[in-house]
Amino acid sequence: MRRTSAHVLAAAGLAAGAVLTTALPAQAADDWIAVGGWSIGAHARDSQWTLKYPHSAQQAEGRGQVHWSNGNETTGYWTEVRAAANDTVRDGYCAVTQVSYQKKTGGKWTNQTRSSAVDCVDHDGKAYWGRFYKSRTPIRHVNFRVCLGGPDGSIPSTRQCGPWAW
Length: 166
Known about the structure:
Layout: E1 3-5, E2 21-22, E3 24-25, E4 32-35, E5 43-52, E6 58-68, E7 79-87, E8 94-105, E9 108-119, E10 128-129, E11 132-135, E12 139-149, E13 154-155
Parallel strand pairs: 3-9
Antiparallel strand pairs: 1-9, 2-13, 4-11, 5-6, 6-7, 7-10, 7-11, 8-9, 8-12
């Protein structure tokens, strides 16, 4: 299998009524730009979690990191993110770490979700770290979760995702 960074993930077109969902890669909607490392250091958060699906076996691990500038809930924050995914069992799924956030569009805050790291290397004990991304516009309410999905970042069902971790 393979490991995939968000910059090579393809957005999948969906047929009406399809169950498959695809979160676009981090830079897909011009919300983010790939950068070489952290440049914003005012505030930082690092979270790690494990998805057990079905309930009896650990199948995926995810990790999210976010750095942000001084700002507020009205104006938003200049933000950088990085995520990792680790496929922990040979089950035909990949580990997909997603980032959720709000960006201001036309004066309104809108919810966005992107796949930021995909690991399809079964049970090798190594997490795949995606690229660093810096927001092109102010962002707020950044959350991460890990899901079981496909090598393109697609998620067959949101029931195959852990809860959003702040």
